[in-house]
Amino acid sequence: MKRNDPCHCGSGLKYKKCHGRKRTTTISLTSRPKRDFEIMDAESLPKMRKVCTLSANILDEVCERVQPGTTTQQIDDWVHQMTLDAGAYPAPLNYPNGRTDPKKPRITTGGFPRSVCTSVNDVVCHGIPSENCVLKEGDILNIDVTSYLNGFHGDTSRTIYVGTPSEQAKLVTETARECLELGIQAVKPHGRLIEVGRAIYNHATKRGLGVVRDYTGHGVGRVFHAEPQVCHYPNRETDCELLPGMTFTIEPMINAGTFQTFLDKSDGWTVYTLDRKLSAQFEHTILVTETGHEILTLPDRNTDADK
Ligand code: MF3
Ligand code: CO
Ligand code: CO
Fold first, then answer.
1. What is the best residue among 125, 128, 156 to mutate for testing ligand 1's pocket, by most ligand atoms within 8 Å of CB?
2. CA 307/CA 302 separation, integer angstroms
3. Is 56 left (phi over 0), alpha (psi -120 to 50) or beta?
4. % of the chain residues with pLDDT over 70
5. What pLDDT digit, counting tens, does each position of 3-14 carry?
């Protein structure tokens, strides 16, 4: 990139006046929103890959352990321990009052009180694991794992069936799975972020399902929740060019009924569907490459066949 070219971050400033400056402090922009995102390079990318694989492996393992009778607190205990065993920190714990020292994991700072989000049935996201929450036959459960290792975050989630799902549970869950896949396929270098939201929104609404607008995907890397904001519907306000080296999540939340949500004021975290119908979600951390994209949050843990 030449010094006088437009900056890769989309600020509209010349590179030399923006990320090309020796010291990039806050740049005040009056006419455009500030867009400040990270571009992975040869130094950061291996670390990003490593933490993303770790999160995916943890998610994969705990999903296999869940059965009717499991409590969401047990899932939290598993995720917490596996994360520390890997020398990492569970990023949700105490978020956003970040205490990210693996040696002091249980010190409470008033943020999110557990190490993983577990969202059952009509919970859209940010469900808090609890020993009172016993999973039963027919439930759907999203487990959302974010690990923090060597200064980078890897964020991934999946909805699973506890026992045999109802037709409606299958519809929201399989549609959410397809929405993530279609969103990922829309990621192209020098393409537009708005196409991700469009692909997801069109697919879910064709099925008569609601697409959550109150919570979005996000840039992820050194910072847990960074630019760009990744809307799961077409939104011109948050659109930007997709550049090789960008990393962000796509994490559509798909509802059986209305797209609207409400926050549980009693715990300050749990988000429900407004009509209390089912909601399902899948999430990957994606890298934009020179030729397309790469899903960073795929598990690589040994299967029985490898042993
Ligand atoms: N992992 C969630 C996401 O996909 C964020 C969880 S933040 C918490 O962005 F505080 F709720 F844990
Ligand atoms: Co996320
Ligand atoms: Co997540």
1. 125
2. 7
3. alpha
4. 83
5. 677 665 555 677
Residue-wise pLDDT for 154-190, tens only, equals 999 999 999 999 999 999 999 999 999 999 999 999 9
Within 10 Å of residue 105's Cβ, how many Cβ atoms? Answer: 17
Whether 112 contacts 128, CB under 8 Å: yes
- CA 114/CA 122 separation, integer angstroms: 20
> Around ion ligand 2, which residues have CB less than 5 A away?
155, 249
Distance CA 26, CA 44 (A): 22
Burial of 64 (0-12, 13-18, 19+ CB in 10 A): exposed
The finding on whether 144 has its CB within 6 A of some atom of ligand 1 is: yes
| Rounded distance between C-alpha atoms, residue 134 and residue 175, angstroms | 26
Number of H-type helices and E-type strands within the chain: 4, 15
In a mutational test of the pocket of ligand 1, which residue from 52, 146, 157, 220 has the highest number of ligand atoms less than 8 Å from its CB? Answer: 146
Q: Is 112 close to ligand 1, i.e. is its CB under 6 Å away?
A: yes
Element (H, E) at 60: helix 45-65
CA of 231 to the centre of ligand 2 (A): 12
pTM of the model: 0.87
The neighbouring-strand residues paired with 71 are 134
> Ligand 2 center to residue 1 CA distance, Å?
30
Cβ atoms of 38 and 244 closer than 8 Å: no
